[in-house]
Amino acid sequence: MFELQAPWWEMPARAVIVYAALLILVRLSGRRTVGQFTPFDLLVVMLLSESVFNALSGSEHSISGGLLAAATLVGLNLVVAMVTSRSERAHYLVEVRPVLITRDGVLFHDVLLRNHVPAADFEAALREADCDLAKVACAFLEADGKISLLK
Known about the structure:
4 strands, elongated, alpha+beta, four-stranded antiparallel β-sheet, CRO Repressor, 2 domains, 151 residues
């Protein structure tokens, strides 16, 4: 139950590889936060976790192996958080820069499409700000998926 079936270093190595791959995939997938997930997004996240389980654990089914993998993932997350908080370059490798989607009342539809943002989300941001498009000086799609408006 507690005895590792593989060398001790294999679980952390697997965790690093899976973490890096998922970080890249999530970075490429878009700008939605958990609160903005559609049912489809949630399904993809659940299936993603299931699909990487074997890559993460290999043939290891011990409690020690699972805890070692979990500790490695949490440690990696802490390291990424520390590095990105201290380095702007690293921050923008992991996170994304805000994207200009409107200037002087002109909506850039191609930017919305490229970032997979429905026009309805932009319209909702306008309603929340109690503003119409003609009065918007600039609007940005933020890294967390929210739309910020400057009147």
